[in-house]
Design brief:
Distance between the termini: 38 Å
Number of helices: 11
CATH topology of the largest domain: D-Maltodextrin-Binding Protein, domain 2
Oligomer: single chain
Number of strands: 11
Low-confidence stretches: 1-25
Shape: globular
CATH class of the largest domain: Alpha Beta
Strand content: 25-35%
CATH architecture of the largest domain: 3-Layer(aba) Sandwich
Structural class: alpha/beta
Mean pLDDT: 91
Radius of gyration: 19 Å
Largest sheet: 9 strands, mixed
CATH superfamily of the largest domain: Periplasmic binding protein-like II
Number of domains: 2
Length: about 260
């Protein structure tokens, strides 16, 4: 389901949305995303961008009465891009953390996740089996921070950093790395039709994803209100079922209205 399909599905609600949020024609919403981060944002053979968060951006822009533009930015560059004002909002399965809340703002979360270890079939079957092995991570990601903090504990020989899942998977299949640590939903989606790859271990990190903004940007609160409406109307649940083939768990952040995260 591309963002165009999802926009069509919600078009009937556009008039009501404008009334609720006072939407007027505004400048284009510039959205940074690390394209190649399946199933959140990736490029189809047609050249169109697709994914859970691409569809979500379309729905949010619709409710705000704004056009939008997707800008492809490596994950680690998204933080400076929102802080400098180069983009208005960033998506790419970005985890809300206390450290990040010191320099950026987030809307309420919309997905609960953990990390995972992926290897080739017949390769290491656990983190313990990765002693003296080379692990791949996405630069600046939660997986990167987790692996770096525990490199000595698990005895990793090296940590190699990538700008997205695709180049890491190429190196994993070519034997240049022995395992890859990243978000479990992305890896389950990517490996489901690839018998030569296996997600061998869930790494419980209790992550929650959301859209990221410049610190205290008024847009964050506006988008937070839109996410509340999308959850209450069931559109967020529909989006989850489209991309993951199942309804979200009851009580998850995908269907539960939550407050904007703040530093305690």
């Amino acid at each position: 389901m591309t963002y165009r399909t999802f926009k069509t599905a919600i078009a009937g609600l556009a008039f009501a949305s404008a009334a609720i949020f006072g939407a007027q024609a505004q400048e284009t919403l510039t959205v940074g995303a690390n394209i190649g981060n399946v199933p959140w944002e990736f490029q189809e053979e047609s050249g169109d961008y697709a994914g859970f968060e691409i569809d979500l951006v379309a729905a949010v822009a619709e409710r705000l009465g704004r056009d939008y533009e997707i800008v492809n930015i490596p994950f680690n560059g998204l933080f400076s891009a929102v802080q400098s004002g180069r983009i208005d909002v960033a998506v790419s399965s970005i985890t809300i953390t206390a450290e990040r809340l010191e320099s950026v703002s987030f809307a309420q979360p919309y997905y609960d996740s953990d990390q995972s270890l992926t290897t080739v079939a017949g390769g290491p079957s656990s983190l313990e089996a990765m002693a003296d092995a080379v692990v791949g991570v996405d630069t600046g990601s939660t997986g990167d921070m987790w692996a770096t903090e525990r490199a000595e504990e698990y005895g990793f020989a090296d940590i190699r950093r990538y700008e997205g899942l695709a180049p890491a998977m190429l190196d994993l299949q070519a034997g240049r790395i022995d395992g890859y640590i990243s978000d479990i939903p992305a890896l389950l989606y990517y490996t489901k039709d690839k018998p030569d790859l296996q997600v061998v271990q869930r790494i419980e990190t209790g992550e929650k994803y959301s859209m990221m903004f410049a610190l205290d940007a008024p847009l964050a609160a506006e988008v937070n209100d839109v996410l509340t409406a999308l959850k209450e109307e069931g559109l967020m649940a529909d989006l989850h079922e489209t991309w993951f083939g199942a309804a979200p768990d009851a009580g998850s952040s995908t269907v539960t209205v939550m407050s904007m995260p703040t530093l305690q």
